[in-house]
Amino acid sequence: MVVVVADCVLLQRRVISGRPVHEAPGVTVREGETPGHAAARAAQEHLGLEVAIGDLVFADTEHGAEHYFFLADVRTGGEAARLETDGLLSPIRLAAVLAYVIEPYGLAVSLARLLRGASRSAHEQAAVATPSRPETEPPSPLPPNKAPLTRP
């Protein structure tokens, strides 16, 4: 499960072989439980958060185990600031996810695509809200009686 607060994703930080690695908290899916329900349970068990599970961001199979990563919005529970200071989570700006070691790597790529899609969507919404103007040549910064200087 991937918790996004403001423009940051909250990931657990561990040190493996001397290097920091960030990963999303997770649990094993129990019999009769959906991956989404397991993600909500992971938030409760690992972070003390009640979350609303959103879209599936990334899925992967590693060593015969299936891993599902969903976006999650915090409803109630531990405050993100407290979780950060307790060392449970590292806030990573979505715009910088590819600069960190995030496992699995495909999750980092999916988060970067998500950010790119969100900014593209915001740009498209702004374009729809702004009436289109006919294509015109931009005004010249020179007065009409002055010609631009040219070099031979």
Q: What report would you give on this structure?
A:
This protein has three helices and seven strands; from the N terminus they run βββαββαββα. It has helices at 35-47, 80-85, 105-129; strands spanning 2-5, 8-16, 19-23, 49-62, 65-77, 90-93, 102-103. Strands 1, 2, 3, 4, 5, 6 and 7 form a seven-stranded mixed beta sheet that branches. The longest helix is centred in the C-terminal third of the chain and has 25 residues, at 105-129. Residues 121-128 and 130-135 have low confidence and may be disordered.
Name some characteristics of this structure:
152 residues, alpha/beta, globular, seven-stranded mixed beta sheet
Fold topology:
Elements: E1 2-5, E2 8-16, E3 19-23, H1 35-47, E4 49-62, E5 65-77, H2 80-85, E6 90-93, E7 102-103, H3 105-129
Strand/helix succession:
EEEHEEHEEH
Q: What characterizes the major β-sheet?
A: 7 strands, mixed
How far the N terminus sits from the C terminus, by CA atoms, comes to: 64 Å
How many helix segments? 3
How large a portion of the residues is in β-strands, by DSSP E? 25-35%
Provide mean pLDDT, rounded: 76
DSSP helix fraction = 25-40%
Question: Quick one: how many beta strands?
Answer: 7
Unreliable runs, pLDDT <50, ≥5 residues?
121-128, 130-135
The SS-based structural class is alpha/beta
Query: What is the overall silhouette?
Result: globular
Oligomer: single chain
- Radius of gyration over C-alpha positions, nearest whole angstrom: 23 Å
